[in-house]
Amino acid sequence: MGGFVCQTIAMQEPKLVRKVIAIGSGPAGNAETAPPTDIVFGIALKETYAFEDARYLFFAEGRERETQAYIDRWAIRKDREPVVGPPVIASMVESVSGFMGGKTDHYSRLKQLKQPFLIMSGDRDPFFPLKNTWLLYGRGRRVPARRPRASPTAPHRGRGASRILSGDLLRVTRVGWLNAE
């Protein structure tokens, strides 16, 4: 939901947001938006993830070491938040459904964004297929973004994708994008 939240805050409170970075996101309210893969929510809503679940959601084939390290770190953490229960999940589903279904008129309002907008995505994201990154960028430059960055074999989430996406992010930010006024 982070990509949705950052887009919404940038539109609703533009004076609070100088720049926007959306990783693994897409636009809402567009009939062309590709849905998550068929099995993603069946896995994502589990209380605990088996190795294959974590690899599918957050990593990619061939990234078994990173997947196992994630599982190992998760097992030793004592400061975890409580498991998200059915009432919270129901609220999230309702919120995302309204957003994705166009109830917020979000897609037509994307052109209101004036902040520089960096869009990054992995080509193996089960939540937001790569097509959605290009829809967010949009025909006719829907948002004021540089050309989206698509990283090969990168998954959905920022942490799991950090080693893969960070090279692209560093290349973009080295040229002064984050420091520019």
CATH architecture: 3-Layer(aba) Sandwich
Regions with little confidence, pLDDT below 50 for 5+ residues = 158-162
- Tally of separate domains: 1
Our measurement of the CA-to-CA distance between the termini, rounded to an integer number of angstroms, reads 27 Å
Evaluate the radius of gyration.
17 Å
Give the overall shape: globular
Determine the mean pLDDT: 75
**CATH evolutionary superfamily:** Alpha/Beta hydrolase fold, catalytic domain
SSE succession: HEHHHHHEHEH
Commentary on this structure:
By secondary structure, the protein is mainly alpha-helical. It has one domain: Rossmann fold (3-Layer(aba) Sandwich), CATH 3.40.50. 45% of the residues lie in helices and 7% in strands. It contains eight helices and three strands, in the order H-E-H-H-H-H-H-E-H-E-H. The protein has helices at 2-12, 40-44, 51-58, 64-76, 86-100, 106-109, 130-137, 158-174; strands at 20-23, 117-122, 149-151. It has a three-stranded parallel sheet with strand order 1-2-3. Helix 7 (130-137) links the parallel strand 2 (117-122) and strand 3. Helix 3 (51-58) crosses helix 4. The longest helix has 17 residues, at 158-174. The protein is globular and about 45 Å long. The two termini are 27 Å apart.
